Amino acid sequence: MSIRTSLKKVLPPISITEQEALDAGDVWIESSIYQGKPDMQALRDIPQAKLSAEEQAFMDGPVTELLNMIDDFELGNGKHIPQDVLDFLGKNRFFSMIIPKKFGGLEFSPYANSTIVATIAAKSGAIAVTVMVPNSLGPGELLMHYGTTEQQDYWLPRLADGRDIPCFALTSPEAGSDAGAIPDAAIVTKGEFNGEEVLGLRVSWDKRYITLAPIATVLGLAFKVFDPDQLLGDKLELGITCALLPKSHPGVELGNRHDPMGVRFYNGTTRGQDVFIPMDFIIGGQKNIGRGWQMLVSCLGAGRGISLPAMGVATAQSAFKGTVEYSFVREQFGLPIGRFEGIQEKMADIAGKTFLLEAMRVLTTEGLGLGVKPSVVTAIAKYHMTELGRDVMNSAMDIQAGKAIQRGPQNTLAGGYAALPIAITVEGANILTRNLMIFGQGAMRCHPYLKDMVDLIHSNESSADAEFNKVLRKTVGFSVKNAFRSLGKGYLPFLRESESALPEVRKYEKRVNSISAKLAPLADLSLAVLGGDLKKAELLSARLGDVMSYLYGAMAAIRFYEQRIEDRKLALPYFEYAMQWSLQQADQAIVNFINNFPNTATRGLMRLLTNTYTNSVAGISDDLVRELSIASMQDNSVKEQLTHLVRVTPGDGNDINEQAFKAKHAVAHLLGKVQKALRKEPVVPFISFEHALNKLQEKGVVTADEAAKLHDYNEKRKLAVRVDEYTFDMELVPASQTLKAIDGGQNAA
Question: Which parts of the sequence belong to the Acyl-CoA dehydrogenase C-terminal bacterial-type domain (predicted)?
């Protein structure tokens, strides 16, 4: 019996839906990480994505106008998105960023798409979700890639100008992540359409969690097709199929809503019972019956790699901006709270991860802009960028504390805190993405021979044995090279190469190469020892996926620092934190993987090959934490670059915080002068800052002009540290009114 035949009996079969998922998408720079040789030159050679003149004009025009129309607090208190906002979105083609210009769309780049969605998300999660859905997985993209000419010519112009609002229905109460198990079914039959008897499908479905369904005018629908009367051939089950149904079509039910965390985007249900549709409703026509799952998984890049990560980055930038500004202005015990080490630990984490997130956003969209659809990279982006956004938001909530939990127009965190879990659950919960997709697809797509081996193992061709043996020899050779590379770079540091011209980057690039070299033999040994069981060992495979992911993040940070930072001296602590954190996580994932590998002998070999004999992993120093937290409170180009997605609207919470932050920086030298004078000759009793300042002016310590600047700052500071308050009947009281009610500012914080 041949090796191939023996393996065929042992390995579990791959289902059609699994095979199509594995076949979907392209391989990009992640393959070099998996193979132990990160391609840093290819990374540096990727063309830099920038907004075109047309895209910048859209940002400066319609996007800015939209942000000025949005009151996210009022939106959260209401039931519906205002009709004028929905009309504005349609009129200005926010729903058509991916639709080609020949159909009336904007045809923007992935980088522009991400920047626009993230900028909106920083203001309102509800509006961002409303914009992102038509521009990610949905009828528009499916029509562009698979629709017939007639379908494209009719539907795409209508989707482009907002005459039609689309939704796409996949998830059902009985099947979420296991799309292959959807119970929604269609029977091939004949029926009447437009007064004629035609061949078609009688479809029944029950779907939930469908974004935009309550206001959609056209429904994309996924279901299984059966042909019991064999009208199309001799097969009974024809597979998952995608169709496009107008809301006005008889039997289509759209309208009922869910309430996702009080975030007022439209999300709801759609149902239908024995609804007859002609074959022309199938996206791409009758020939695409059974190709639905393949169509879906090949079009996931936009949602997974652009829209959902954009929400994570927007959340982080908004939290970063509000928190560092608040921490600089808010004082306790005579010091800004950002000077206390407990706060600094959280602030440094916020700042470093925000740098990492922006770097990953830029690199991922640059890759998509090349025309590739890297399924592994987009899964990495979806999982880690939404999770990092959640980490940053939670740290910001800890720092802002009471201010963060009081709802109102001045709260800059509440909207993101409520909306981000939505991004984490969409398009497969993050648990699924991390535990099944990243390494599961990564191993099959990034290994140079594994997919061929699996295909040959399950092949029934007579030549399969001979072809398999050839591939097996190549695989063994590949694994041996991986083992020696890991040994060399693990024990001999001088073998770890770096191509960077920057000394501060070279040490980290060498670590990236060393960790990647360790990943390759770990993956090889896991596949050799566990085989098909590795698919079920989710805790183990997820850790290998984590190593790939954190190395991808580190490569993104290197590229971002080298190519997009103008003042590297200012950005160095951000970069160092992002790199040290990413590589620490990758090292820890390797330690945890080896410690939990079930085979003792293999575990020992893994330790030898990777030079991993300890559970200790290098952490981030307190000195770097202190340095980065202080740096993050400076008003400079780096802070501006890492908060560029947050557009300040006059009078909103971000505006109030920013005014106080900038005012304090402007009078910092005067505050030092006042503090020195008060230490020398205290004002007793110290009724308020205003009172003390007036006394110092009387003594000639500060001039009238200096006192005016300090009083102006103090008024802005008091407003920034206050929170929204209401009457007993929950009517909002303007902050300016509450401040006036305070006699002489005696209660100023």
Answer: 444-726
